[in-house]
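User: Fold this; tokens only.

Assistant: Input:
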Amino acid sequence: MSLDVSVIIPAYRAEASIQRALSSVAAQTVLPREIIVVDDGSPDGTFAAANACRANLGGIDLKVFRQGNAGAGAARNRALREASSEFVAFLDADDEWLPEKLERSFKNMESNGLGLVAHNYLAVQADGATNNADCALKYREGRDPIVTLYRKGYLATATLITRRELVFKAGGFDENLRNAQDFDLWLSILASGQVRFEVFDEILMRYHVTTDSITSNTRRRVQCCMKIAVRFAPILKNRPGGVYRNLWVRTLIVHAEGFQAYRGRGEMLAAAAIVLRCAFSIAATTLKCLFNSRTTRPVFLTPQ
């Protein structure tokens, strides 16, 4: 028996890791219907490496596509257009699922009548050191999980499963955002409060931290996160903390994360500069929100 789920994998420069990712899907206790890999213009052998795994997937249908480099959001949207299942699960080409990921996720979805589910993960550093990312703890913080999601962004994409129709209704991934386009989409799906979701307390994914990962471009990430903060501030009007308090908290968190990233790489001038920019960013985003009374975002996928 297989689950009615399409596994979405964007891949860029993933020749060395795509086999590990695909093998982790094939090792699931309950298999998905299909895997869709989109090679986002890789200059290495990613496309060939993905196709070479076809015979070792236990009968899972594998579709591999290639496109010009357009970013992870565009690659995921291409895969979503090709998907045929009711549910979609997301995995990055340099990460891996633990064997019970799909089985445990679907059990939680069905038992609790959820439209979206996620879980904790294990972060694996380049030197082999590991630490647990407790996303479920953040989900349970505060009175309103939407407010906490807006502030802290606790949904890790490679842990998440949702209905394909919800992704299409939200318009898909914003291809104009080179970072944090997944965070933007989850906010879009959940902002109305009509979709029930949960982050359950199990570690079912390994996230391999690499120096060239998409989150490593700190300046670009801060810019994208602040754009999203302004975009979704209106949804907080009638939620705990309101628009401006939550916007200010989000701004502080984004800049604090940027400071930590720069400091961790020894870029102390950049770390000092981002601290100085924080006050300006609070003022600028507050002014933008004064003239931004509703949430709008571009549409890249339309309901089918």
